[in-house]
Amino acid sequence: MFQPRPRVSYVLYAFAIFFVIFAFYFLIHAVSMKVNFHYTLDDSNISVKKGLISRQEQYMSYETIQNIWIVQGPLDKMFGTASLRARNAAAGAAAAAGAAKRTMWGDPSRNERKQEAATVWNNTIDIPGLARQDAETLRNTVLQKMQQNPPADTGSGL
Fold first, then answer.
1. Rounded CA gap, 132 and 1, in Å?
2. Dihedral angle sign, alpha carbons of residues 34, 39, 51, 98
3. Mean pLDDT in each 10-residue stretch from start to end of the chain (158 residues)?
4. What is the value of pTM for the model shown?
5. Distance set, CA 88 to CA 10, 130, 151 (Å)
6. Ordered structural domains, the chain, with CATH
7. Are 48 and 121 in contact (CB under 8 A)?
């Protein structure tokens, strides 16, 4: 006898395909970040090199670092990882300069907004995917190097 086959909803198929594509993208992204992310601590600065297609390099000297802290979100806590984040004072200065420019001359142009965002972005270095203990050790190492490289007195009075 002929028995009808049960129908599976196309929504279920679409969900399964979406899940497989998302898992594949996440896997490729995680592997490429691990392979294409390098940081170096030398005598005078931190350097971060990242990117697969467009290579980015960031440098921050120890004497300009104003803040250094460990970031650990809910997923980081679940997996026991953390990120080390360092920021210098130029990020606040760029935002203040942009705010002053807006109040004096009206709204900034598109290029000025991009430049302001790039300045703020480029003044933060993020080193993700560290074990919590490694992040603390790295933070202590950077703090020691900051003490060895104090900011130069420019005589500006600030």
1. 64
2. positive
3. 68 89 86 81 89 82 91 90 88 49 52 47 82 95 90 65
4. 0.62
5. 52, 21, 12
6. 10-148 (2.30.29)
7. no
